[in-house]
Write a structure and sequence with these properties.
With 377 residues, the protein is of the alpha/beta class. 49% of the residues lie in helices and 12% in strands.
Length: 377
């Protein structure tokens, strides 16, 4: 009977008021929180309305009854389904919400409308999320990128056996192959150069500010700040819609970078690519990362010609259709196909796969070695 009662309870919570049976205590409060968000108004008359106190109480209820991951999903659904965006301008609301990447994206899109008394609360929310992302991603990124930079720098005088690049050494000495001994005699060693401090690579990161790219902007801002902390890299960060904003001078603080963006405008990829072309001083040592869904509002053919010119000059161009955990994004398949035909990879990338992607780019390895998903083909 206990097992049957538990199944009935769970089905009652899943089906809501349309199911038979009543709930009591914590179950009733949990059901009311779900009904306010997911039940049709014509059936239950619950809802959250436009009342800030009611929404604040509801946010407190869901944090009490549901785990953090579920709370974040319900908050995002509430913003999308019930149009609660306006209420996020209230400091009381911001203090009640569970900070996450989606909420940061929403706050950044509202930053120009936010009253002064809510601005510091919004910064606190963004700062909390940025710190969590830095704790999750910084060490892995620094390890992957610094290792790739070490391996990509070559020397013909390796000091230790561990510094010998055996694959390159064998290829460099194939003419010294002795058939009778079935071995290669290495007259010249190729190794990894360690400890270089000079700038080895230039990274130009250009991120689309359209509304659909909000989560990608948050992650890109954090990654750009991490890359900018490395002396072996010269990192530039550009945000764009129909205009271009160079935020490189803010990379010491990713929160400042994010508040320098303005999510939700139109898109002129061509103008952004033209600006980034001017930042490239060493084409053969430059990685250009364009984070965009490729829906171009500017001159498409000119944008494609500029990218083709960058690749012809030796720049490694990579298009990330999304930099987020949200799965395969919506994107312009025609533009992605044209880029793929000219040898420019276009795919979506998870934040956890980004350090491996950067390492592969530095070493000029194939990008399918990382855990990436989606395709521009």
């Amino acid at each position: 009977m206990e097992g049957e009662d538990e199944r009935s309870r769970r089905w009652r919570l899943v089906l809501g008021g349309a199911a038979e049976g009543t709930l009591e205590g914590a179950d009733a409060r949990m059901d009311a929180a779900l009904a306010a968000l997911y039940d049709g108004q014509e059936r239950r008359g619950a809802g959250l309305g436009a009342s800030a106190p009611r929404v604040a109480r509801w946010l407190g209820d869901i944090r009490e009854h549901f785990p953090s991951g579920v709370v974040q999903v319900m908050q995002k659904d509430a913003i999308d389904r019930l149009d609660l965006t306006r209420l996020l301008l209230e400091p009381e609301m911001l203090e009640a919400v569970e900070p996450d990447v989606h909420l940061v994206g929403t706050l950044l899109s509202l930053s120009r409308l936010m009253p002064e008394r809510a601005r510091e609360s919004a910064r606190s929310v963004v700062r909390t999320v940025v710190r969590e992302l830095e704790a999750r991603l910084t060490r892995r990124t620094l390890t992957a990128v610094s290792g790739a930079l070490d391996r990509s720098a070559r020397t013909h005088r390796p000091r230790r056996a561990a510094e010998v690049d055996w694959n390159r050494t064998i290829r460099a000495n194939l003419r010294n192959y002795l058939p009778e001994r079935k071995t290669v005699v290495p007259s010249r060693l190729v190794g990894y150069a360690r400890g270089q401090r000079a700038v080895q690579r230039e990274v130009v990161l250009a991120v689309d500010q359209s509304g659909s790219m909000a989560a990608s902007m948050v992650y890109a801002g954090v990654f750009a700040a991490v890359l900018a902390s490395m002396r072996s890299l010269k990192t530039s960060f550009v945000a764009f819609d129909t205009a271009v904003a160079d935020l490189t001078d803010r990379l010491h603080d990713p929160v400042e970078v994010l508040f320098g963006t303005q999510l939700g405008g139109g898109t002129d990829i061509n103008r952004a690519v033209a600006y980034c072309q001017r930042l490239v001083t060493r084409p053969a040592d430059t990685i250009f990362l364009l984070v965009s869904d490729l829906y171009e509002g500017g001159p498409r053919e000119e944008m494609l010609r500029r990218i083709a010119a960058m690749t012809a000059a030796g720049v490694q161009v990579i298009v990330l259709l999304a930099l987020s955990d949200e799965g395969t994004p919506q994107y312009d398949h025609d533009n992605a196909a044209v880029l793929a035909a000219m040898g420019v990879p276009a795919f979506a990338c998870t934040p956890d796969a980004f350090p491996g992607l950067m390492a592969a780019a530095i070493e000029r390895r194939s990008y399918d070695q990382g855990r990436i998903f989606g395709s521009g083909r």
